[in-house]
Amino acid sequence: MSLRIVRPGLQTTVQDRGRFGLQHLGVVPCGGMDPVALELANGLVGNGAAEAALEITVLGPEIVFETDALIALCGAQMDARLGASPMPENRPVFVEKGTVLNARRTTLGARAYLAVAGGIALEPVLGSRSTYLPAKFGGLEGRALRAGDRLPLIENVSSISSSRYENLNGKKQLAGLRTVGWSAPALTLPERVPVLIHAMEGRQHALFDAAARRAFFEATWKVMADSNRMGFRLAGPGLALADAAEILSEPTCLGSVQVPASGMPIALMADHQTTGGYPKIAEIAAADVPRLAQLAPGGTVQFARCTLEQAGELRRALRQRVDGALRALAWIY
Amino acid sequence: MYAEFGTQLDIETNQSLQALAAALRARSLPWIRDVVPALCGIAVHYDPYHPALPAQVLVYFEQLLQEAFKSASRFEGSGRTVEVPVCYDQVFGLDLKEISEKTSVSSEEIQKRHTKSQHQVLMVGFSPGQPYIGGLDPRLSVPRRATPRTRMPAGAVAIANAQTCVYPYETPGGWSIIGRTPLRVFDEARDPASLFAPGDRVRFVAISRTEFEKLA
Questions:
Q1: Distance between CA A320 and CA A292 in Å, rounded?
Q2: Nearest residue of chain B to residue A141 (CA atoms)
């Protein structure tokens, strides 16, 4: 009852929706970088939102399904094959024991989520199965997957998968694959270049000089190569403080944009440190963090100024679209 | 959401924040995920999609803080004192010499003062279990190092400005190292996982190289 990793890809980790309640002890939630795609992938295979799935980054893995399983791939579009056929995304696919998923490169977006019916059967660590790479715990031994790894699935994955697939509406054979004739929407893929991301002024916004305050919302920023799950380093015009000021370390959160002495901003992502002493020029709207997570190094972004109220509206609008998609699935299951 | 109660490090403010955090946690509001007492403020992380999330969350937060202020008991800390064995040997205390030169306090005196002071955890953050500890003897105050080390040894006991800390992991760090503890600061398989929690009192205890090796 397992997934066997033949080739791990660039960075494939186990992630769920996160580890909450421990930030006062320095433990950040982690979780899927694009929680929307993760939630949809879980929904497509009939899982609850709390199950763990595989987060695939830019270069995909080769995986052997050592059991019959209902699977779904959401998020980034990938050049991926299931056996001899192209892997259909954003829909449930029933695979037979021995089937090989060969995921190559993402063609749009940077992160894809592979969910399996019943989830990944690893023991939660501190309440979550998310891999926390900086401190090396959670997921599979706190690390990214390697060739030869076997990821445990639930014991009755085969029977659960068959019955869930049988209950699906609109079942359809597609290029020899047992899937469906409909698909869930992709809600977080880049819709334009540069990607437009909404952000509010950060707590230390006023400490920056006038040129920096203007440049942040006008420039096009490029995601640098040394970006990772902790943070996206952005290249563009250097941002300077009006007066060199040292601030005391204070809490940070997902989407905080801090500016170290180099003047190049860092957008804090899923594995970010819980506190930091760099001034924060902006806070990215929660609804737009998943879309930012879909950028690979080299991708470009522009920030659009928004208010707290607008960020709230964006968030509610996104939630409605996710709920709409999940409701349609609930009706199907 | 973050509420700031000052911009200067102040032990009394910090103690009130610990009490406030306890009072906020006691409310067990389902949409609140994390209550993080920090050096001079308090952060509340919430689930933006929780059905019970109040519409005017900032206004609500302010009311919540005011109520918590009323219900918060006087600060009594966590009631715990964490004893931290530290080997102040030169092998571990990589910056002892430099600190001596800057402060005119001898290595022996640094150890003496560090083990004698009443310390208290002001905040835990940056990496899992990493404590920001206040109460450092003012004579030991040195600024952060101009060039941070790319790798602090795990267990490094270090000082900067008015604080001292223990590095749980091999991470970059800009504080000056005075010794090392053999204790594991954070162990996800242990209960509790974190050796330190905000509000804990901390007492450093000098140990020899031999004792260090035995405990490590």
A1: 20
A2: B188
Q: What is the dihedral of CA A274, A280, A283, A289, to 10 degrees?
A: -60
pTM more than 0.90:
yes
Closest-CA distance, A79 to chain B, in angstroms, reads: 33
The ipTM estimated for the assembled molecules is 0.91
CATH number of B2-71: 3.30.1360.40
Give chain A's domains with CATH numbers: 2-187 (no CATH), 195-322 (2.40.100.10)
User: Which of the residues A275, A315, A316, A320 would you substitute to probe the B interface, choosing the one with the greatest number of B C-beta atoms within 10 Å?
Assistant: A275
Question: Which of A48-62, A283-297, B72-86 comes out lowest in average pLDDT?
Answer: B72-86
Shortest CA gap A253–chain B (Å)? 8
Here the tokens at position A229 are: 């799950």
Regions of chain B with pLDDT less than 70:
73-78
For chain B, residues classed under CATH 2.40.100.10 are 81-215
Give chain A's mean pLDDT: 95
* Rg of chain A on CA atoms, in Å: 20
> Which of A288, A226, A296, A289 lies closest to A29 in space, CA to CA?
A289
Please tell me the CATH code under which domain B81-215 is placed.
2.40.100.10
CB-based contacts of A245, cutoff 8 Å, min separation 6: A207, A279
Longest dimension (CA), chain A: 65
